[in-house]
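Re: that backbone. Tokens:
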């Protein structure tokens, strides 16, 4: 009985200690996600019209 109370008390204490750190880390993750979104919006990857075209050579489509 005393062992169960100690374990439950330990779990409660650890959860109280860890919760503020978890919430703070979550806020940092959101800001990091927003910064990555802004970086990827500014990249022109896949939007270059002068490269990556298919050519029909003797009935075979070739990607160059």
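Recovered sequence:
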């Amino acid at each position: 009985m005393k062992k169960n109370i100690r374990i439950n008390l330990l779990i409660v204490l650890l959860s109280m200690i860890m919760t503020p750190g978890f919430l703070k880390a979550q806020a940092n993750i959101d800001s990091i996600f927003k910064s990555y979104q802004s970086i990827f919006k500014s990249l022109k990857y896949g939007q270059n019209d002068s490269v990556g075209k298919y050519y029909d050579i003797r009935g075979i489509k070739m990607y160059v």
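The chain is about 65% helix and 10% strand. Helices lie at 2-42.
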